[in-house]
Design a protein that fits this description.
The protein is built from 17 helices and 16 strands. The chain is α/β, with parallel strands linked by helices. The strands form 3 sheets. A 7-stranded parallel sheet has the order 3-2-1-4-5-6-15, with helices on both faces. The structure holds NADP nicotinamide-adenine-dinucleotide phosphate (NAP). NADP nicotinamide-adenine-dinucleotide phosphate binds next to helix 1, helix 5, helix 8 and helix 15.
């Protein structure tokens, strides 16, 4: 079984790497809020990054925001730089789990995965970059298995709500679920909202490199996933959804890739029936549609050239109509923001034979929660880590590079998320 205990040489349950980043600071606050949920009611943790001064400031800020002055003396600081392998090794040797918030992962992620595998620490990240996530599976799965280490990507808003949402929908359906479509919508308060530049950079470089993903996938040599029931409907690149009453586009993030990898794992390891998945996002009314088409065309043109990428990276606000910014959202904006995933599933009800006729049963579920990037993401990441520490016997027997759904399908992660404001329900 994977190591989940601290020891004199591995003193921390969690080390937050990249704690000084925009997202990292909120992960620090979330860990500080949940220490009593750790093993024996006392989670041992430290912050890590390349600048001691910045880390001290983050701890100071968390102490002020949470009214916990004790953090100033209790939280240890580890200095580690992605460019310095010895510093990464020293950090990983001290942690049961590294919560890696250093991105874009395509540039900084691999040395951290390597150091975790070599030094026996589990790693959770919040990458939404399929190329990085699938590349790590290709290159480190067997080494992680040999070491009994879990490397679990996409443990933030990308892609825990979607991946666990499909599993939740399957578990709630009375019969054999065969297909799910999800529709993602966002809400914001009077002050509006935006996403920090770190995610914009990950997206710009991800789209620029998207062709490499196809050749990476061929290296897995996977057989096509079998399917049961009717083939899931292929919808166009833009349509009006009567269900969510918005114009809708295919969701461009990591969710489809992550859910598909999870389903493959469940089919191959547990002989479960695969669930086909389609992911869509609502973009709103005609006004937003025009904005999206305009920015989309400019984005697709610029992202192909290095001068264009430099322009996009330099001016996130200009090229995203204010959706991304170098300053990130304010706390007030975050308070007013929310997300909602509506899942529409179909399958064969109990007693029906999934090999005969068309699916006749339907189910509708919802996963909803607070602001996605810096409230829901830290909650998801921290609860995923606490699940590893608390429920080792419900995790896969072997270490490896996994999706959240593959690791947490048999755990109480959904219940934990429900208690922390990311709500799963059947409609
Ligand atoms: N899954 C989700 O839904 C979700 C949500 C939010 C964010 N994210 C992802 O999380 C990542 C971070 O986003 P962000 O907005 O927080 O970015 P950010 O503010 O730019 O933070 C980046 C962090 O990486 C650190 N870093 C950079 N180079 C480093 C190096 N060589 N060694 C050690 N640390 C280094 C930075 O340290 P310094 O402070 O010293 O510069 C900083 O702490 C992005 O990939 C983003 O896409 C995902």
């Amino acid at each position: 079984m994977a190591c989940v205990e601290t020891s004199s040489s591995r003193p921390y349950h969690l080390v937050i790497f990249g704690a000084s980043g925009f997202t990292g600071q909120f992960v620090v606050e979330e860990v500080a809020r949940t220490v009593s949920e750790g093993p024996k009611g006392n989670l041992k943790w430290a912050v890590a990054g390349r600048s001691k001064q910045k880390l001290e400031k983050v701890v100071e800020q968390a102490a002020g925001v949470l009214g916990k002055p004790e953090l100033r003396t209790e939280v240890d600081i580890i200095v580690a730089d992605v460019a310095d392998p010895d510093s990464l090794a020293a950090m990983c040797k001290q942690a049961v789990i590294v919560l890696n918030c250093v991105g874009p992962y395509r540039f900084y992620g691999e040395p951290v995965v390597k150091a975790c595998v070599e030094n026996g620490a589990h790693q959770l990240d919040i990458s939404g970059e399929p190329q990085f996530l699938e590349g790590m599976q290709l290159n480190y799965d067997s080494q992680a298995a040999d070491k009994g280490v879990y490397i679990i990507g996409s443990c933030g808003f990308d892609s825990i709500p979607a991946d666990m949402g499909v599993i939740y929908t399957r578990d709630q359906f009375k019969g054999t679920l065969t297909a799910v479509e999800s529709y993602l919508t966002f809400g914001s308060g009077p002050e509006g909202t935006c996403i920090h530049d770190g995610t914009w950079q990950s997206a710009v470089y991800g789209f620029a490199d998207s062709q490499k993903l196809q050749s990476l996938r061929r290296k897995f040599n996977h057989k096509p996933l079998p399917f049961v029931g009717s083939r899931i409907k292929r919808r166009g690149t833009l349509f009006f959804s009567n269900d969510i009453q918005q114009y809708t586009v295919p969701f461009m993030g990591s969710d489809p890739s992550v859910v598909k990898r999870t389903q493959r794992f469940l089919v191959e390891e547990h002989k479960e029936t695969p669930v086909q998945y389609g992911a869509y996002a609502g973009i709103g009314g005609v006004g937003n549609l025009i904005k999206l088409m305009f920015t989309g065309m400019i984005f697709w043109f610029l992202v192909k050239f290095s001068f264009g990428r430099n322009l996009l990276i330099k001016h996130p606000e200009l090229f995203s109509f204010g959706l991304f910014s170098k300053a990130g959202p304010t706390r007030k904006q975050m308070e007013g923001s929310s997300f909602q995933f509506a899942f529409y599933g179909e399958g064969y009800t109990e007693g029906e034979d999934p090999s005969q006729g068309k699916p006749s049963g339907k189910i509708r579920t919802l996963v909803q929660g607070p602001e996605c990037g810096y409230v829901a993401t830290p909650i998801a990441m921290v609860q995923a880590a606490l699940t590893i520490l608390s429920e080792p016997s419900a995790l896969p027997k072997r270490g490896g590079v996994y999706t959240p759904g593959a690791v947490f399908a048999k755990t109480t992660l959904v219940d934990r998320l429900n208690k922390h404001g990311i709500q799963f329900s059947v409609l």
